[in-house]
# Entry
Amino acid sequence: MRDKHGIDVAPLEETHVRDFLTWTDYEDPLFSVYNFMEDEDTVGDWYRWKTKGHRDQYFAILEAGRAVGYMGLKHISLITRTAEVGIILDRAVIDRGVGRAAMHWLLNYGFYTLGLERILLEVLPWNGRAIHLYASLGFERMGRAFRRVDLPQGALYEAAFAPYRKQMRTMGQFCVVSVHQMELTKGRWRRGI
# Structure
């Protein structure tokens, strides 16, 4: 399916996930959580884990037939008419408008194809680029909530995350981070606010 913004979108398939193996990693320690950490032996397991939910729909973002990202609507409820959005991109396509175009496609799909009334998301506090994008699309901040995040360890990472320590809590073997919760309503999207 080609979007009017110039991207191709297709339901996520295991062959798309194999493209993720060639993605350029994020070198900034703050964004290393977005690196695709699977290998040839675990791609199938990852794909089955990601797509097993009957209330989740995932899509590949394609350029020249190659998956350069994936996005999805999770926890889709046709009763409450809500879902949660998520998107991950190959670092090599950042700053080229791919994320904005993909989000336009996904929001239109959620609101007009699925009939959702509200789309929610959560974003890490240090992901300023994403927060700016979501706000420019009309998402509004609703609050914050602590969520478990598997952060890398080591001196390099400790220094990178130091400015965000007040938004982080260590709980035994894992860390929780105070994430921004944001919401977009169908009416706000339709009005282009």
Notes: The radius of gyration is 17 Å. The chain has one domain: 8-191.
